[in-house]
């Protein structure tokens, strides 16, 4: 999508600016946007925190954030211009008077553009409190410029809480003012799914139930829960990755061509896919979903602890660190094609992959030769760590005998020397430009919760036992029972024989 380099200036107000998300993602991304010339000269960044810091203390902290992320010396001149954008405001999120003082500070038009984006880098329980205070103190008033609110996931804890959160948000904000951010959608290869599908007419005749056997979407992490155990144990893999990220990727793979590439048309088609996913009744959950938890094992040659041995994990926890689903989309294009989603921590390596398996030919022409059965054709889309595309086909081996082997057509989606951008860079710029294409509309959130809610409800009652898998493996072998075909199985590698 072409970038509008003439967008208006903006004041980014970040609640929770001294926290982990700001340290790892937000401030480094804003710095890189600044270094690339994507921020107007007047754009300002206001950090809101409880600490009684002077502005210089915040600037020093922000410099550490950027250095730690980029791992290199900063360009002195570029940094000096960036530090001029940085401001600090001390306040308590629960104190209404803090918002009055913030409003007074932001009214200084010499320092702060009156287009304001409020970024909620805070606990979900605080979203409602902050938005209510912003509204009551007039900070969401658009008399002198636009006001936008950015909400980080999770958008609720289940369907009921998501509806309650939306009712609260909708009381103070219009839908077009709300930017529900899912950083996964900012990844270049995720967006490339759209281009791959809709800019290549040769694929469209094959993209349906007549030719595709099944689709797999995998997100694997070699890391454990680390310092996130307190949050993760209450969330689990199904909420943390599948409900938001992987279901979004599924919609991009399965959606119909939108009437245009504007944000509402795109999201209309994604919602249609979510609405078409066949509901999973409680009695069928175990046939469509599987969960497990990592045990002790070896990752990258090092012994690692089991989940239950991680700091802050409650004794006897049955929180899933691995989750897999089988879903069916009951529409004309995809009827009868299973979609398999899996995610897990402490798996063999970091890898995010969309794997599309095609059906076998309707007739085995080579049944009287040494070819017993050919390998199915695949299309693989690598999301991370490698952004690439692979198409696998069967060809005859050289020689006198009729034997086949798989060859691959590989394309790295990034040319040598092309800049690598972080997902948050794209999304932070979209917020300024008002482009909501890569942000979630509320009905997307609700229907995604409707898909997983029956599973969550059943799992919440089954507290006695959870399967385990060794850290460093590709997950529990029991998850294979989700597959419908005898030759189906998880595709976790670029190598078709691994």
What's the gist of this structure?
The protein is an alpha/beta fold. The chain has helices spanning 20-35, 55-70, 76-83, 96-106, 127-136, 159-172, 188-198, 229-254, 263-276, 285-288, 423-433, 442-461; strands spanning 11-15, 44-49, 86-90, 116-120, 147-152, 178-181, 212-220, 289-295, 297-299, 302-304, 322-328, 338-344, 351-358, 378-384, 388-396, 404-412, 439-440, 467-470.
Task: Quote the average pLDDT.
Answer: 87
Number of helices: 12
Q: How big a fraction of the residues is strand? A: 15-25%
Strand order of the largest sheet: 16-15-14-13-7-12-11-8-18
Q: How can the largest sheet be summarized?
A: 9 strands, mixed
Structural class: alpha/beta
Percent of residues in helical segments?
25-40%
β-strand number: 18
Q: What is the radius of gyration?
A: 24 Å
The topology string of helices and strands comes to: EHEHHEHEHEHEHEHHHEEEEEEEEEHEHE
- Low-confidence runs of at least 5 consecutive residues: 1-6
The global form is globular
- Cα distance spanning the termini: 37 Å
Structural overview:
With 498 residues, the protein is of the alpha/beta class. The protein has helices spanning 20-35, 55-70, 76-83, 96-106, 127-136, 159-172, 188-198, 229-254, 263-276, 285-288, 423-433, 442-461, and strands spanning 11-15, 44-49, 86-90, 116-120, 147-152, 178-181, 212-220, 289-295, 297-299, 302-304, 322-328, 338-344, 351-358, 378-384, 388-396, 404-412, 439-440, 467-470. The strands form 3 sheets. Strands 16-15-14-13-7-12-11-8-18 form a 9-stranded mixed beta sheet. The two termini are 37 Å apart.
